[in-house]
Each structure stands twice: as structure tokens, then as C-alpha cells.
């Protein structure tokens, strides 16, 4: 099968649009259409079907897309391996981090990595944990940083737990709970919490933790961004359980108050995840080697900061 034709097909499959694919590939629309038809003839199967101005993949098209991703991931690995022989400090790293690690841990670490490896190109995405796992399985990422129960991740992944986050209940300083020494878990079932979306590692840890106490948490509403959750709590819209990493400043200046939950400790695992059968480039290996001790140190510092704040109260 012609690799250039396969490359055209993969672009069409990713964009679900022939015109947009032709623009990105700098090819005419008829040329892209002819390429897809040629692949269908070669495979003896229909690969796409039109749905108005867009296209959708058939089952055969999804199978071909999966193998095409693997082929071009291997092609990129080959290029990076050869590049590494010429320049061990060059190359490209493609990774994603969950929103907590991506916003509150990764920036300072990336800055330090860039000082040591200025020639390495970094492509970083911020997604929720379930999206990261899917992209890794689809061969589009070298590795990812995810949060949640590592034992629940799919097979075929190499998972390395490097640290633990700490989830805490926070309220605005004028909230009725702000003066309480603690709350039983059952109290949180009576008033909805502001929660992250389903698929978020934090959401899964919260729900699992409360179910172990026989408590079902109902969302007041859901948001896909940690900062948006924090701003809602600051505005006294409601209470939320958030990563301690995200509220350091607000706890320190008294805008938010931590309320301990009796008998409940929520410490989701932070894990480095990659495909077990994927060979990382020299650049990606260097990033991982730099990342592990730095994240362990960073997360330990934040946990200590939170504990010192609670003790001071």
C-alpha cells in the first residue's frame, strides 16, 4: 500500500472533511477524492461514507486509520532515532498532561528542561485523563501524565506512579461551612458540589471515595476547567473538592477555606503512562528522566505547603 496515499487517507480521517484535508495537504480536492477511491479499490472495501459536507469512516476505515497511526508513529520513531544519532540533544517530544499537572506542575518543569535541552521541540496538550489514555492508545502521543487509579487503566500501557495529589474540600470564606472544624461525608450528599466533567481523573477519585462511605455525590453542575471551578467557589456559588495544587494562593490569603472531611482522604495517583510496545526516542527518554524526580519533588513540596497551612489554622 502506497504510504503517501495512506498519509492522505489519515488526514481525511482525522479531519472528517475532504476539502479541509486537501487544503492542509496542499492538494486539489479531486486528487484527494481519487486517492481515497484508489485505496478503497486496493482494499476492496468502502472506507468512507459521505454525511452532507463531512465524511464518516466505515468500520473498515476505522481499522485502516488505527494501523495508519501505528505506521506513521513508527516512521516518526525511525526519524527521531536517526536524528538522535546525529544530535542526541535534538528531536521532538509529544506529550499530554491532565489539567491539574498540566497547569500547576508542568510549566516550571518544562522551563527547567528547556534550559538543559534547548534543541528539543516539545508539543504539549492539556486533556482530561481518559482523553490522554485514548490518544496514547491511538499512537498520537509519546506519553502522558494522568491522574486517578492506575490499576483501572487499560492493558497494553506501561504505567509508572510517581507521586500523589491531594484533593481537598474548599469553600469561600463567607460560606456557612467555612467555620466548621470538619464535615462528615454524608453532609456532602445533601448539597451538590461543583464537579469536574465525567472522564476527569479527579471526578472518578471523588465519586469512588464517597461510594466507599455509602455516599452518592450529586453535582451542582460540572465544568471542564480547574480554574473555572475555583472561580465559582470564590464567588460563593458552591463548594468543590479540588486539587490542593490549584488553591495554594487562595488558601494562603484566606479567600478560600479548607474544610476537612471526616474519615476521608482523597489522594489520587499521578502516573506517567505510555504504550508498553512503543520505543521512546532519545529526546522523549531524556524528558522522562528529567520529569520523574522533578515531579516527585514538586508534588511533595505542594503537599507540605498544604499541610503547614492546615496546621497553622
From TrEMBL:
Top-level taxonomy: Bacteria, Bacillati, Chloroflexota, Ktedonobacteria, Ktedonobacterales
Superkingdom field: Bacteria
Keywords, in A-Z order: DNA-binding, Transcription, Transcription regulation
Listed Pfam families: HTH_1, LysR_substrate
The protein's name in its UniProt record: LysR family transcriptional regulator
CDD domains: PBP2_CysL_like
Homology family: Belongs to the LysR transcriptional regulatory family.
GO molecular function terms noted in the UniProt entry: DNA-binding transcription factor activity; transcription cis-regulatory region binding
Residue ranges annotated for the HTH lysR-type domain, each copy included: 1-58
Listed InterPro entries: LysR_HTH_N, LysR_subst-bd, WH-like_DNA-bd_sf, WH_DNA-bd_sf
